[in-house]
Amino acid sequence: MRWRKGRRSSNVEDRRGEPSPGGGGGMGGGLGNLLALAPFLLRSKKGWLILLALAALYYFGGNLFSGSRHTEPPSLGPDSQTAPGTQAGPEDEVAQFVSVVLADTEDTWGNLFQQAGSQYVTPKLVLYNDAVRSACGLSTAAVGPFYCPGDAKVYLDLSFLNELKQLGAPGDFAFAYVIAHEVGHHVQNLMGTSEKVQQARMRADKVTANRLSVMLELQADCFAGVWAFYAHRDRNMLEPGDIEEGLRAAAAVGDDRLQRRSGHAVSPDAFTHGSAEQRAYWFRQGFTTGDVNKCNTFAALAGQ
Known about the structure:
The structure is a single chain. The protein has helices at residues 31-41, 45-60, 90-115, 160-166, 172-191, 193-203, 206-233, 242-252, 255-261, 276-289, 297-301; strands spanning 12-14, 124-127, 131-134, 137-140, 146-148, 153-156. By secondary structure, it is an alpha/beta fold. The protein has a 4-stranded mixed β-sheet with strand order 1-2-6-5, covered by helices on one side. The chain has a two-stranded antiparallel sheet with strand order 3-4. A hairpin with a 4-residue loop joins strand 5 (146-148) and strand 6 (153-156). Helix 3 runs parallel beside helix 5 and helix 5 (172-191) crosses helix 8. The longest helix has 28 residues, at 206-233. Residues 23-38, 48-71 and 78-87 have low confidence and may be disordered.
């Protein structure tokens, strides 16, 4: 991607390096209770093990494996090195990249909302490490990037870039697709779609609720494609191979592939985000048309 000369967004909230929010409520009183229990737990070998486990939970915010996510700094790839003369490390470079992509989504959706006679309210994007507290509750990095409609913020742990590589979807545009997808959920929130779907899901059985969730997620994929259309046409940000990166990323996080990767049989009724084929299709639909009206996944999938 040609991103270095792009505008940086002022809507990035950097919480990296802050103490994990999991220690307080998640531990029922936090460090104080842990210290109070210590004299009793230290009386036996088993107690020692319990104390160590509790200490790990306190430190890592409820995720014993969260520390392993940062053994390798995230990197955009060999062609995205820090410019000569700068001191920025890999994570700082990725944070700058995120800021540029967010700014570009702001420009795209700001123009589209204006053309529709409305005003686009920009979301905040929160960078964090390991765990974060939002209006949607406490979340660890293991959940991946997410959007919380309660506070209209996108939450992102930069280590997810390494997760994408492990899923077979490396590249800067693959990461940009992820950001644009979460911003797509913000667009749905502004349109009132998210609330309508949530209300319908609460009245539905589990299979139907999952189908509604899939429709919502696929529309966010399509909205990510719409952003890519304008980023390419109006600002020439995309390079050869970028769209293929986006399609690979969309397919890599398909429910069927993730189910197989976790050792489970593919169960379409359990899908909540859509199959690899569906996710790639709807991203391409948004990119080839640049038309929000072509992203009506609810009408397209209602009869299937």
